Task: structure prediction
Amino acid sequence: MAVNPLHLESTGDGDEALLERLAAARRTLLDQVGRRIVGQTEVLDGILNAVLSGGHALLVGVPGLAKTLMVSSVAEALALRFSRIQFTPDLMPSDITGTEVIEEDLTTGHRTFRFVRGPVFANIILADEINRTPPKTQAALLQAMQEHEVTVGGATYQLEAPFFVLATQNPIEQEGTYPLPEAQLDRFMFELHVGYPSRAEEERIVERTTGDVTTELEPVLDAQELIRLQQLVRRVPAPKIVVETAVKLARMTRPADELAPKEVREFIAWGAGPRASQYLVLGAKARAAMDGRPMADLEDLDAVALGVLRHRLVLNFNAEAAGKSADEIVADVRRAATA
Result:
C-alpha cells in the first residue's frame, strides 16, 4: 500500500524538521479521516495524542456516534494492521490472545503443539464495547496493554510495535455489563467522551451516509514512521514547571494529600496514581509536537488534564448523593491548581 509523501526516511533530519513533518502529518491525517467522520476533531486529536504517546484510549459515547468507524479510519490512515474484537458475555480470553492447537504430521504420526495467534496480534486493536465481557476476558488485555506481550501455555509472545488498544464503551446501557476495574482503567491514557454532532454536522452526516459513494483513505504514516515520531515525542522537553504542575494535579485528586481541595476530600474515595502524572506530561509533549512546537507548556498540560484524570477518580457515596461527576471534580482541581 502506497503511503502519502510525508516520508521520514532521511536519517539526517533534525528534530525541528521532524516536528514540522509531524504537524503536517497530523493535518493530513485529520483531513483524510474527515472524509468519513464529520466533526469530532477534539476526539480525533485525543486518539492521535494517545497513539503518538504510546498509550491507549477509551472512547465513551452512546450508540450511533461512529466510534467504531472513527477508530478503523484512523488505523487505515496510519497504514497499520487493524483488528476489531467485539466483546460479548461469552468471549473467552483465548478468543483474544490465541490458543495452542495439536497438529499431526501425516508422514510420521508425530503430534506437536502450534500456537495460533489471536486478534490481539495487530497494531491497533478496537475493543468494541469492552464492558460487555466478563472480567476474566477483560483481564486478558491487561498484560498486552502494559507489557506489549501475551503469555499462553507457559510461553510468552511479543506484540509487534506500535501497539495500541482503542476501546469503546456505551455509558447508557448498564444491564448485563461488567464495569472495568480501576486497575484496567488506569492503563488507558485517556478517556475520551464522544458527544452528539451539531445540527449542521448531523445534516452533513446524513447526506454522506445515505448515498452510494464509497470513501477511500490514503495512508499518511506507516508503522516505522510512527515509531520514529513516538521517539520524537519522548524527546520533546517539558520544563520543570510543567512536571511540577502535572505531579501537583495528580496529588490534588487524592483525598488524603495535603494539597487536596475540599471538593476532593468530600467527594473522592481514591484519586489518581503516579501513572496519571506520567501521562499528563506525555500528553502535553505530544500536543506540543502535534502543533509543531519544540516544547510543552502549561496550556498543553491543562488541555489533556480532563482526559487523563476523569477515569482515575473513584467517587464516594457523597458524590453520588450530590450528583457530582468526575468531570466536575477535575474542573475543581484544575481551578485550585492555578489559584
